[in-house]
Amino acid sequence: MTKAADQESPTVALFVTCLVDLFRPTVGFAAVKLLEDAGCRVEVPAAQTCCGQPAFNSGDRKSARGIAKSVIKKFESFDYVVAPSGSCGGMIIKHYPELFEGDEKWEARAEALAARTHELTSFLIDVMGRRAVDTRLSATCTYHDSCSSLRELGVKEQPRTLLNSVFGLELKELEQTEVCCGFGGTFCVKYPEISNAMVSKKASHAEATGAEMLLAGDLGCLFNIAGKLLRNGSKMDVRHVAEVLAGMTDTPPIGRPPRRGDIPVEGGAKKASSAPTAIPAGHAARDA
Amino acid sequence: MQSTSPRFRENAGEALRDASLQRALRNIPTGFIKKRQKAADRMPEFEDLRDAARDLKNRTLANLDFYLEEFESKVVANGGTVHWCSNAEQAREAILCICRLVGAETVTKGKSMIGEEIGINDFLEENGMTPVETDLGEYIIQLRKEPPSHIIAPAIHVNKEQVAEAFFEAHQDLDADRNLDQPTALLAEARGKLRERFLAADVGITGANFLIAETGSSVIVTNEGNGDLTQILPRIHIAIASIEKVVPTLDDASTLLRVLTRSATGQEASVYTTFSTGPRRAEDPDGPEQFHVVLLDNGRSEMMGTEFQEMLRCIRCGACLNHCPVYGAVGGHAYGWVYPGPMGAVLTPSLIGVDEAGHLPNASTFCGRCEEVCPVRIPLPKLMRHWRELEFRKGNPAIRFRYGLKAWALLARMPWLYRRIMGLAMHTLAGWARGTGVLQKAPLAGGWTAHRDMPAPEGATFQNQWRAHVARNRDSGT
Ligand code: SF4
């Protein structure tokens, strides 16, 4: 029995995350498809930007609270909030309540939002009760656990369960899979040499699996690892786990050249497979 | 000890290029990490024990003054002396004074991080005495004239060839052609040399893992037995400890011991766990004539009542160092002072100032592994973040990204402007990639592109595509 069993189709607000929004929209469309396939009505609040983590982790608590308040206002009216990221999910789930600790007006609201917010793969399994996706991909893949998914949210089995249901996909585990890839937000530009040492280890562990593709649930880690693999001249492809689960692997892997005429433009026709075809009634971009 | 923490970046760069250090650091995952995991797995109540350890430390800290005074009264009742020292200088003077009173020449030392913190070896040497480290790792780094690089494995950065080199250099009275290829040969030689010193020593200085208020005892855990010889053979035993080492009862000490050794080395108990209670009594077969405890504050009482009070729970197990990917990349010396790794990143700015050690709490990805393994559940990333907050509030100009971040935070609260600007920016960046999928250079990202490629944005943002998509579907009536 899942929490959603008595709710016909819960309304889920997609917290797109700034990296997906700006750099890899495919992940956003993949998330929408997965959520709709699981029976959710998906909305994308238009006024969303960033979860505030860069400010929070840099010690700018005031700005972080300001951003958090606007996220709370825009998202608190939905049944659920889902992010294709453990890092942004973790920010809302673990750190928003901490940001407003002892604040009469906001603490309860932050906690209420935190309770309804989920990382994408854990939402599909733990809340929607999905155990499988209806997709095929013939590839050997390895999965990188982002630190925030793994340690802040306890997400470990969920992406693996779903990936194992992809027909033709074989999963190989990384050595030292619990270890950080060295991204760390601003860390990677503040301490580039240390970050490089960390991502170099991760890239070599990834290569050692012999997998064709590395997947993860967080674009920060993915860009970091992909960037290193590309610089090393590696053949390994890198994708967000949602792309594979949604069967949206015809866009090029992260950092690989797009095929001719494939750069999506505003209002332009995106390939049918990359965008959900049926939008449920009442589905509109909400300007909260 | 003079800190080199302001040079953390440069130190780290040098460490990354030090091939033998890098080789040594590669052993940590298979050594400490595996052993701790096995020990934790073997003990079903390990997680509960961590809660108990945290709670008992919190209770003790809440009444620290009371337990310290109780400890002192028990030490005095046993015939010992407690020296209250508010800073390193007072502690050094107290120790020197004790040594001078007995005309000490040779002083043996057990491993002590407080000894490092107050720089006792250099100080005793300057005053004409010969301090000799008796823990093998400490002995090695003393010969190499360098500080420890790990709080429980001080010579973790040294390989056996380097040890042999140090021994040939230091023990010139021995046969120059002897074979020191095997670790056992090194061990035997160190043992022989140290034995002479143990017998010659006038004063023995040890650290303390715990001080027990109800008995006035100091406790050390060691694996080599050197600590026992250090405190039993000389006429004088000085235990040096910081104020947060006190625990109320023997039972409490045993709770902490159970999590300490498992977290540190994966042992159920260390080879030696030694309790020292006062000087030798008439009926005792051995023991020192005098028992002194040098109790050091050195900035800790100022942490009380602040967010950093939680750091005073630390029992110096070293697990956070072992599990830290930054420590694993650069080792302990890069941190530039006594305490490295995550615990150092929180503690060092408290003890020597955040202006000096500001890099340390910044050089973390907040991966959270330290907090995950800390036996007393110190929220290390949260405390590092707290240092960043204090620095940010001070407007520390060293925060290079301050203005960029402020601009981002402002923009994040103006969604319409954000969408305009970012939409344009992504188009521009996508154009710069010229169909290669990557950017060779990007604004503010020199640190990134020096080492890796920067994946280019796909083109239009998700938000813009989504809105167009929704509008299309609405128009076509679906
Ligand atoms: S902070 Fe925790 S893990 Fe690190 S040394 Fe102290 S007790 Fe051990």
Which sequence of SSEs, written as H and E, runs from N to C of chain A? EHHEHHEHHEHEHHEHHEHEH
Number of helices in the DSSP assignment of chain B: 24
Strand content of chain B: 5-15%
Mean pLDDT of chain B: 93
Mean pLDDT of chain A: 89
The major pleated sheet of chain A works out as: 4 strands, parallel
CATH class of the largest domain in chain B: Alpha Beta
Low-confidence stretches of chain A: 1-6, 266-288
The CATH topology assignment of the largest domain in chain B is Rossmann fold
- Total discrete domains of chain B: 3
Key terms:
heterodimer; A: 288 residues; alpha/beta; Rossmann fold; four-stranded parallel beta sheet; 13 helices; 8 strands; disordered N terminus; disordered C terminus; B: 478 residues; 3 domains; six-stranded parallel beta sheet; four-stranded mixed beta sheet; elongated; binds iron/sulfur cluster
Verbal overview:
The complex is a heterodimer of chains A (288) and B (478). By secondary structure, chain A is α/β, with parallel strands linked by helices. In chain A, 43% of the residues lie in helices and 13% in strands. Chain A contains 13 helices and eight strands. In chain A, helix 5 runs antiparallel to helix 6 (107-116) and helix 11 packs across helix 12. Chain A starts with 10 loop residues before the first strand and ends in a 43-residue tail after the last helix. Residues 1-6 and 266-288 of chain A have low confidence and may be disordered. Chain B folds into three domains: 1-36 and 323-397, no CATH class; 43-298, NagB/RpiA/CoA transferase-like (Rossmann fold); 413-476, no CATH class. Chains A and B meet through helix 1, helix 2, helix 3, helix 4 and helix 8 of A and helix 1, helix 15, helix 19, helix 20 and helix 21 of B. Iron/sulfur cluster is lined by residues 263, 314-320, 343, 373-376, 378 of chain B.
